[in-house]
Design brief:
Order of helices and strands: HHHEEHHHHHH
Strand order of the largest sheet: 1-2
Helix content: over 70%
Largest sheet: 2 strands, antiparallel
Distance between the termini: 43 Å
Structural class: mainly alpha
Radius of gyration: 24 Å
Shape: elongated
């Protein structure tokens, strides 16, 4: 007769449940994986397959009852770790979309916006175009596979434990969030600089010939100049996008590294 204890049962369940929770957190937040166009069933299947592959290679997990308070703590902590790693890469796409917003406002295309189902907000056409370019570059450079590799590495950097993670990890996430504005402005800088020179030239032309209708000729010129600069800079976006992807993956790796500095346990009373 086959018999097993409750501790062994909890260990078997935790060996799949805890890794699956961290993986599903990344799948829910990471770009491409967490896209709303991907059916929920596909996300769960991908997470289950990855958990089945990763589970035998990770350090031993605590044999805690998943329905207990300690089990709920582990469940929430693992989901937060995976979500934070996926959100670190999502911030890279937010920076790219922010550059599109800056370019749209400079070109005068801020009115050309539509509903984005991924963010449930209004977004400009240039932002969506740059986001599609970044998605293709993300897949073409196999950055999604490197992100999964970083997730698997996190199980050894920050093993599954009932001990709360360090507060340094959320602070690292906040510091990385400031990269949205600097990276977005760097990507949009060629368009902003070119249109600034164009507007200065139009101002000088209007001053020299007051009879010209600035509103009649200014908008087509700035719009055409903006599209021309975008077409000229597209072939050179590969290098900055790869750098941003590498920085996003490295930021995702730093989260479990900083979270591994757990506070010492309380002394027994």
């Amino acid at each position: 007769m086959i018999s097993f204890t409750s501790a062994e049962l909890y260990a078997w369940i935790g060996a799949i449940l805890w890794p699956l929770t961290r993986i599903l957190g990344l799948v829910a937040a990471a770009p491409v994986f967490g896209n709303t166009a991907v059916p929920m069933m596909i996300k769960v299947i991908v997470g289950g397959l990855l958990a089945t592959i990763v589970a035998p290679t990770i350090p031993p997990v605590p044999g805690v009852d998943p329905t207990s308070w300690a089990g709920m703590l582990i469940l929430g902590q693992e989901f937060l770790i995976g979500t934070a790693m996926g959100f670190a890469m999502r911030l890279v796409f937010a920076a790219i979309e922010f550059s599109g917003e800056v370019a749209s406002q400079t070109m005068g295309l801020s009115f050309a916006s539509f509903f984005d189902p991924n963010t449930s907000a209004r977004t400009s056409a240039i932002s969506q175009f740059l986001a599609l370019v970044a998605t293709l570059a993300f897949l073409a450079t196999n950055a999604h596979l490197v992100l999964v590799e970083a997730l698997v590495e996190s199980f050894h950097t920050l093993p599954i434990s009932a001990t709360p993670m360090s507060l340094s990890a959320p602070l690292e996430m906040v510091r990385w969030g400031g990269r949205i504005f600097s990276a977005g402005l760097q990507i949009a800088m060629p368009i902003v600089a070119t249109l600034l020179v164009t507007n200065i030239a139009l101002a000088i032309l209007t001053r020299a010939a007051p009879q010209l209708n600035l509103f009649g000729i200014g908008f087509p010129i700035t719009l055409g100049t903006g599209f021309l600069v975008i077409s000229l800079t597209l072939p050179y976006l590969n290098t900055p996008l790869q750098n941003l992807f590498n920085q996003g993956i490295e930021a995702g790796r730093r989260i479990p590294r900083t979270g591994g500095d757990r506070p010492p346990p309380a002394p027994p009373r």
